[in-house]
Amino acid sequence: MSDAQLPALKPYHPATFQERGVAVPFTTPLLGGTRARPADKQRVELVIPNPSGGRGVYIMPWAAIAAWCQPTLHDSVFNERIASLTNVTPATIRRVALQVAAEGLAGEAAMESARLAVKLEKGDRLVTNYQLLMNLVEQVGGRFAQAAMSRDTGKPDLTMQARLTVDWISPRLGRPATWTATALEALSDVLTNVGVGPAGGAGRLPRLLEQLRACRASMSEWSCLQQNEDQAEYVGMACTVADLTVSMASVTLAAARDMVADMVQLLRSWAADPLAVAQLAVRPEWLLDGWEQICLIWGHAEDDAARRSALTEIAGLLPILPKEASEWSEIKADLDASLRFRRVVTLNEDWRTGVRVFDLIARNERLKAVAYRPG
User: Fold this and answer.
1) With contact defined as beta carbons under 8 Å apart, do 287 and 241 qualify?
2) Most Cβ neighbours (<10 Å): which of 78, 100, 182, 249?
């Protein structure tokens, strides 16, 4: 796309996460940092960072992507599929990403990782559903322990105890037992990534939060050994935004987990307003959206030269925290800081000529394989 054909650069300081959009893991280097968000008439539009690294973004309809650059086959298919989404969230974008990768469009390694990830996530939902039911039994089903006692083992039969618990609680919720069972399944979809129960830390979001903490610590440690002031500035701002994100994500993650401490109230809330419950549960996912790619880029850099290059790339990928973030966590912070950090950078200045583009595409495909690899 020539400069004359480019849409006008627009300032970019979204007030909400929906307005910020969801990070799309494209493999084409020129599309790095692109986000998708809902537009008018149930369409999806792309928010593409200024390729110079400077301020502003380009807003364009998904159909214009081929006029912007030459996307990989993976990105062309990915772009077509997100265009039909009616709900653009980190979860829906990840679901499409896994589907596309599982078809082999990002290489064999990513295909194998994506297929395994899909299987394991289904298993995680089943485990979460079971854990929610057991939480309900523990909190209100103790009265049925004697009635559910097994003659063979001398211990309560959990299946019978769970059925008696559901049968008892459902009328008190003003719902039939089938609704309660269905609600627990729906809640497991909402809470799987949050992680509940004794193994709550094994949820995808807690793991991503720890990954971000480790990445931030690695950046800071490396920066202490460097003399370049620009690099120190880059690391300092990256760490500042990371610290804010970690703090806010930790608060919202704890709030989401706290909901299962009172299963009766959680079911009542779900009966009254399931959307409000779901929105509370996905807040940490919105806050952490876009950071996995940053962590992977940094982790892939093995020496000083590669880390300097990665750091400059990361500077253009740092997620902007919308004003809504402070409302969610009640943590007051200077959310304009990440905007002031935007500046012209020279990394990948040869994207348009193709000098490094194939190396970067290959790297991005390798990062996908790592991203979808369990644990």
Assistant:
1) no
2) 78
User: How many angstroms separate the CA atoms of 240 and 6, rounded?
Assistant: 33
Q: Judge residue 364's burial from the number of C-beta atoms within 10 Å of its C-beta, 0-12 exposed, 13-18 middle, 19 or more buried.
A: buried
Tokens of 199: 């193994």
Angle (nearest 5°) at CA 43 between 40 and 48: 95
Query: Which residues are paired to 22 by β-bridges?
Result: 36
- Three-state DSSP class for 317? coil
Q: How far apart are CA 335 and CA 340, in angstroms?
A: 10
Residue-wise pLDDT tens for the chain (375 aa)? 545 466 777 767 889 999 999 999 999 988 999 999 998 776 899 999 887 666 788 899 988 998 888 999 999 999 999 998 989 999 999 999 999 999 999 999 999 999 999 999 999 999 999 999 999 998 986 777 666 666 566 666 778 888 888 999 999 999 999 999 999 999 999 999 998 877 656 789 999 999 999 999 999 999 988 887 778 888 988 999 999 999 999 999 999 999 999 999 999 999 999 999 999 999 999 999 999 999 999 999 989 988 988 888 898 889 999 989 988 987 876 656 555 554 444 444 443 434 467 788 888 889 999 998 876
d(CA 123, CA 67): 41
In angstroms, the CA 193 to CA 288 distance is 12
The answer to whether 341 touches 318, Cβ cutoff 8 Å, is yes
Domain residue ranges of the chain, discontinuous segments joined by +: 198-343
The type of residue at 369 is A
* Separation between Cα atoms, residue 328 and residue 333, nearest integer Å: 12
- Residue 341, strand partner residues: none
Burial status of residue 213 (CB atoms within 10 A of its CB: 0-12, 13-18, 19 or more): middle
Q: Name the pTM for this structure.
A: 0.89
- Tokens, residue 26: 């494209």
SS3 18: helix
- Say if residues 240 and 320 touch (Cβ distance below 8 Å): no
CA Rg value for the chain: 23
Give Cα 74 to chain centroid, integer Å. Answer: 20
